Structures are given as structure tokens and as C-alpha cells.
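Journal club prep — side note

Before the paper discussion, L.F. wants everyone to see what a predicted structure for a comparable chain looks like in C-alpha cell form. Sequence:
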Amino acid sequence: MFGIELCDARIHNFDYFAIDLRSDGKFVFNKQEFSLGEFTKDLCNLSKEYITDLLILSGELNVIRKKLLVNFGYQRQLFADAKNKINEILDFVKTVKPFCYYNIEGSRSIVNDVFSNANLNLYDHMFFTGVQNIIKDSARENFNYANALITVYCYFGNDVANFTTAAISYTATLMTIDSRQKDDLATVAFNFFANEEMINNMKNSNPFKDMEGINLRPRVTQVPTIQIDSNNKPFITRRLYFGRLMDFFITELFEAMQCGHYLWQCGVCEKYFLMTTAHKQLYCHTVNDKYGVPCSYVAKHPEITKTKLDKESKKDGPLYDIWRKRNNSIRKNKSLGKYSDAVSTEAKRIIDEKFELAQIDFDYAKEQYEKEMDLKLIYDEAVKNVK
């Protein structure tokens, strides 16, 4: 069993972290479950102003890194400055998606330890005095880690800026085609990421010319992992370890495409939302801050904005997807003779009623619709009504 991990992933710091990739289009990170593409969505919804400010912070740290390079990699004050700047970056990202999903305080603890006064004293001894080799070796390990951390956080803003530029450009290209099937996603990805001119444009847009920009060959360590589910049954998952944000961002983007997940830009609020089906949904179902109702409702009622928007079929939203699955189950159970014609007809009436209510009652759609569309609850209500 050597090499097989049997426990939950416990490393979720910015400099080194793991995800458990499942076969259902989702992954687990820091004990939270996400659909593939959620991090990409959050990144693309960051404002240009926010990304610029993050770039500035990473750029200021990069200035410190360059000064260290001409000082043989160490100067006590520069290390102290680097510690403060990294903590400033952590403060800047700690409440913002998707960065808030990381172990912020765990990342901070490592930084503060490696750059502590006690370790700075060891680095001073290592560079300027003849301390015994055992102390020098111990200090050398922490010293190398400190320099690695500086590089990680220098890349932080750079990776976010470069990746969002690529992801938004890819999404804009995807939105020019009519179909959204998996094959279409692959075709668009091939034409986009294999395009030499496009790759050169992304390279030229790299904010920090002395650092690597977009990288389509992510460095990933994969470890066989066996876990136990809620029913106490073992299951196998893929655990992926990353040492750089860009490596994870690119991996998530392509794993999402492989599952048929992709981003779309809402035609009302212009924010990006994640699609996990090929439905031609044009508007997000998030409540619009300006109008107080979901963007999908705004699109259906042009009197709200006094602007004519492209029409979206009710069949292209997640509410319909739930209704369709329940309707198919009711028809199948009726054909198998599991329920009478009367109960089946009543069950169909119930789901139709709940679907129509969800179209106009946004609180119901958000808080109750999916729960009340539980098939067992539907049949319980149908049987009771028929009696």
C-alpha cells in the first residue's frame, strides 16, 4: 500500500495544495465540494481594478526578489520586507473568491515561521559566521523554503492576471458558436489554444516579462487515493498536488471542459456563470443588485430595463433540468406499473405546479424548489391527494 493515501487531503496552502478529483464533474478542496469550473468562474468575475491591485502587490514583492538576487539571495532587511509584503497579499485576498477557499491562516503561519526573527538569526549565522554544519544545514532548508515562498507570491498576481486573460478570451470565442456540446468545447479549445497567434498574444500580455506567463503544461503530482464514503464504503479518487496557482487553474479549466462544463457571460449583469449542461442558457439566475430580481427574470421582462434582450427558452435553465428529470422518472415508473395512472397524473400535476411557481417566485426557486422536487416527496403528496 506504499504511496496510496487513505485520508482526506490536508494541505491547502497557496505554496502547496491538493484537490481530490471525482468522476462526477466535481472536486473536493479543503473539505468543500466544488463543480469543476467554479474557481475559473470566480477568477473571471474579479474586477480589472482588483487584479491590477493584486499585480501591484506581487510586483512590489518581485522588486524585493530581484534585490535579493544581487545580494546572493539574502539580506536580513529584504527578508523582513518580503514577509510583510506576503502578509499584505494574504490580507488582500483572504475574503475574496476563490482565494478564501484556501487555508489563509495556515499559509500565513508558514510565512511567519520561515521569516521569524529566530530563523533570520540562523540565516545571519549561516551567511556571516562559522556555525557548525548541522545548524547550517537546518538553516539552509528553511532559507531555501523562504526564497521559494517569495517566488510563489511573486507569481500570485501574475498567474491570476494571465489566466483570467486566457479564460475570458476563450469564453468569448466559445460564445460565438451556437452549440455547446462536449465536442464543440473541444473544437473551440483546439482552435483557440493551438493557435500560434493567440498564444503569442497571451505571452505578450504577460505583465512580468522576467517571469513565466501562461503555461499550458501544468506540473502536477498525482497520487492514488482510497477514501471511505458516508455509507462506509471505499471509493477511489484522483488526488492532485500543485505547487503553483497557474498549474491548478489550467488543470481545472481543461478538466471542466472534459466534463462538459464551461463559462458563459450573462447578457444582463455581464458576469460569468458556470454551465454544466449544453442548455443554451443566456442569463444567470443570480439576483441582480440593480434590479432586485434574477437576471433571467430581467431578460424576460424588457420593461424593467427598457431594453430588448435575446430570448431564452425556459428549457435552457436549471429549473427545467430538475423538472425534466422528475418528469422522466414519473413516466418510467408509470410504464413499469409502480404507480397507478391516477397517482402518476397527480405527480405530474404537482411537479408542473412547482416548476411554474419557481418561474415567478425567486425565493422559492432558490430555497425550496429543489428540495420539494424530491421524487419521494412528490409521490407521497400524490398518493395522499388521490386518496
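L.F.'s comment for the group: The mean pLDDT is 87. Keep this in mind when we get to the figures.
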